[in-house]
Amino acid sequence: MNLGGSIRINKFGVLIIAILLVFLVYYISTGKSRSSNYALNKNPNEVNLRKLLIGSIQAAQCGGFEVVEVSKSPDFNVHSKGKTKEGANDPVTDADFRSHCVMASGLHRIFPKLKIISEEDGGNKPCPDSKLFDLDPTVIHENSNVPDEIVGIEDVTVWIDPLDATQEYTENLFQYVTTMVCVAIKGVPTIGVIHNPFTKKTVWAWTNKAVSEPLSYIKRDEDVKHPVVIVSRSHSGDVTNLAKEVFGENLHIIPTGGTGYKVLQVLHNNATAYLHSTAIKKWDICAGNAILAAIGGKMTTQKNEDISYSDKDSFLNENGLLATAVENIHEMYIKKLIDHQKMSR
Questions:
Q1: Which stretches of the chain score pLDDT less than 70?
Q2: Would you say 155 is a known binding-site residue?
Q3: Angle subtended by helix axes 282-294 and 259-267, to nearest 10
Q4: 3-state DSSP call for residue 88?
Q5: What is the spatial distance between Cα 99 and Cα 307, in angstroms, rounded to a whole number?
Q6: Is 164 marked within a binding site?
Q7: Residue 338 neighbours by CB under 8 Å, 6+ apart
Q8: What is the CA radius of gyration of the chain?
Q9: What domains can be seen in the chain, in order of their start residue?
Q10: pLDDT in the model for residue 32
Q11: Non-local CB neighbours of 339 within 8 Å, separated by 6+ positions
Q12: Which secondary-structure segment (H or E) carries 267?
């Protein structure tokens, strides 16, 4: 039996394979640098808000990953930052710190001159080498027509809450936990991101430009015959009594944890309004303020004052809060609140 023979090589086929291999190697080797360069602006004193929106979404999601990872450990390393004015404990955990490092460091690497205010900025521990990220435009759904818009970097302030509802987190009430990023332009809340790390659901909005997909399909409920008011479970102050006095007997009150969670309930029509009567930090409320404004809602103090998120203003809002997803409802409720304030004097 003759097993011998010859193999003829198709030179053209070999050439095609070689060219394809060269392109594949080039794509793999340059993919990371192309992703990194996506964020770069020619002028470091300007920022593209579309790219900052993308970075804000990724920051919230990456911070959320750290929050979930710490939740798997037997010890959250809980410490107290002190007491609030109402005497409630103000805890902080390893999850707060790790999330802060990823979110703030990640955004600063891409936007070096960005002013970032984070709840955990005051910590004495330096951030270790964090798991940073490159901009990924796919975090914005395909149907969103999000424009490029360039603004001066000096007009931009970014507010970060690395772990909202820390008290509930320490109690394993993870449904209330969110990570949040807000972009304020000249003090006006403009871009908001709220991410739930445990459901991996992200809600975002850019005022007058675009909103995340679920928000665009929700029909707003303007029925206020039986108002549902959501309040804090751990920083309630006198808000429960206030709500009953202002909104009457048909009122239903839901006490929950986390400012981000409360805003999400308002956004999804599970609550008519979010009412808060004690002081509250601006990193807790900025993202929700921006998202509500983008969908036609409103958030103000209980004196009907707009809240400024400039880095030059106080980080604390001391005049209470009223937030609704429908501006008309806000106007009706705020009138009741102001009338009640006048009668109580």
A1: 1-14, 18, 22-41, 82-89, 122-124, 223, 235-237
A2: no
A3: 10
A4: coil
A5: 26
A6: yes
A7: 302, 303, 304
A8: 24
A9: 46-215 (3.30.540.10), 228-344 (3.40.190.80)
A10: 44
A11: none
A12: helix 259-267
Measured in degrees and rounded to the nearest 5, phi and psi for residue 300 equal: -140, 175
Q: By the 8 A CB rule, do 130 and 102 touch?
A: yes
The encoded tokens of residue 195 equal 């991410």
In whole angstroms, give the CA distance from residue 143 to residue 258: 30
Instruction: For residue 61, count other CB atoms closer than 10 A to its CB.
Output: 21
Cβ proximity of 220 and 325 under 8 Å: yes
Q: Would you state the pLDDT for residue 56?
A: 98
- Answer yes or no: is 142 a known binding residue: no
Which tokens belong to 285? 């409320």
* Structure confidence at residue 237 (pLDDT): 62
| Cβ contact 110:135 at 8 Å | yes
Structure tokens given for 139: 């975090």
Beta strands, E only, 22-97? 46-48, 79-83, 89-92
Question: Taking the model in full, what pTM does it have?
Answer: 0.86
**For 130-144, how does the pLDDT look when each residue is reduced to its tens digit (9 = 90+)?**
778 999 999 998 777
Q: State the Cα–Cα distance between residues 266 and 134, nearest whole angstrom.
A: 32
Spatial contact of 276 and 232, defined as CB atoms under 8 Å apart: yes
Q: Would you say 213 is a known binding-site residue?
A: no
Q: How does DSSP classify residue 235?
A: S
Contact 314, 289 (CB under 8 A): no
Q: Note the pLDDT of residue 34.
A: 41
pLDDT of residue 247: 83
State the residue for tokens 């023979």. 5
| E-only strand ranges, the chain | 46-48, 79-83, 89-92, 115-118, 150-152, 156-164, 178-185, 188-196, 201-206, 210-211, 228-232, 252-256, 273-276, 280-281, 298-300, 316-317, 321-324
Known binder of ligand: residue 284? yes
Distance CA 294, CA 325 (A): 10
Q: Which DSSP letter does residue 74 get?
A: S
